[in-house]
Structure formats: structure tokens, C-alpha cells
Amino acid sequence: MDDCERELSMADVTQVHEEKETLSIDVLLPGHEPRTTTSLFKRSKKLLEQREGGRCFICGRTSELAGPLESHHHPIERSLTNLVDWPRFQKDCEAGMWGPHAQKFDWSSFDPVNDPYRFVDDQTVNGLLLCADHHRGKNEGVHYTVYPFFIIQRYAKEGTQFTPTEVIHHEV
Q: b/e map of 92-115 (b: 16 or more CB within 10 Å)?
């Protein structure tokens, strides 16, 4: 194949287009305790806000621009706590797979049988600071879109029309 054959013409490039999907999810969540806001969650969310400069992980907006920031349980969703193979997860954390904060967590004193929420509700190791739009917003929030579409919002070019209602803006 020569260079001429390798070159793509504009006719070969897929142009901007809207993708509409109907996503149906059917998973069996394990039994779990009713959702509560623990003192650990409240305390560590404040520490997460300080550490992250009070900015949404995706767009960088502060509470002054976006309203109260929310903390998303990440990577372990609270309702899935009882599904976790903790030794397997711990191994990945200690290897750095989930970042330096989860890596530095005090795994030696962690008792997942009696208190798995000591990790799950500690937002400094299992939290992602988000504005309401990027937490619960239709087509853009982590709870309402697929991960590739969620994470690209952090890295998409400024001014990109991402959804019919969202234009990408980064505050930082």
C-alpha cells in the first residue's frame, strides 16, 4: 500500500453526528443496609473538597458556580459494598490502580467483614467530587451515562457541543 492509498479523504471521515441509545440495565444488587450519611462520609467529604480545591472533577466548577458539590462513591459504589472481593480490591489499591490516596489507605487495620464502610464512606480514598450535573445530570452525570461519555467531558475540547443541552466548559 503506498502513501496515496493510506490517505483518507474527508468522505472517509465520519462527521459530527448525534448518537442516541436506549440503555437498559439488568443487574442483581446484593442485599445492603439502607443508605445513611455517616459521620465519616460528612467529615471526609469536607477533606475531599479541600484537597480538590472545591472543584468538580469533570468541569472544575466550584459551588459558587454550580451549587453545592456532591461526592460520588468511587470506585466502590456504596450499594455494591457487599459484592466486593476485598482482598482482590485491596491488592489493586496497594498496587496503585486506584490512585495514591487509596494506595495509602490503612489496609493493615481494615476489617471489611465488620466495617467495610470505613473504606467506602471515606471520601478521601473512595470519593469523586462532582457538581450536580456531572453526578446526577441526564446524559452527563456519572449515574446517567456510560463511563466513556462521562469521562470524556473532562478532556473534551473547550466549547464542544457535547449533548443537545451541554457545551463543554472547563473552569480550570
A: ebeeeebeebbeebebeeeebeee
Torsion of CA 77, 79, 81, 82, to 10 degrees: -150
Across-strand partners of 89? Answer: none
Provide the residue range defining the domain that includes 147. 36-155
pTM for the whole structure = 0.85
Name residues whose C-beta falls within 8 Å of residue 78's C-beta, 6 or more positions apart in sequence. 32, 35, 117, 120, 121
Is 54 within a domain?
yes
Q: What is residue 124's three-state secondary structure?
A: helix
Q: Are 126 and 73 in contact (CB under 8 A)?
A: yes
How far apart are alpha carbons 63 and 96 in whole angstroms?
A: 30
Q: 59-92 pLDDT, tens per residue?
A: 999 999 999 999 999 999 999 999 999 999 999 9
Q: Is residue 16 part of a domain?
A: no
Q: What is the largest CA-CA distance in the chain?
A: 65
Is residue 60 included in any domain, yes or no?
yes
C-alpha grid cell for residue 112? 471489611
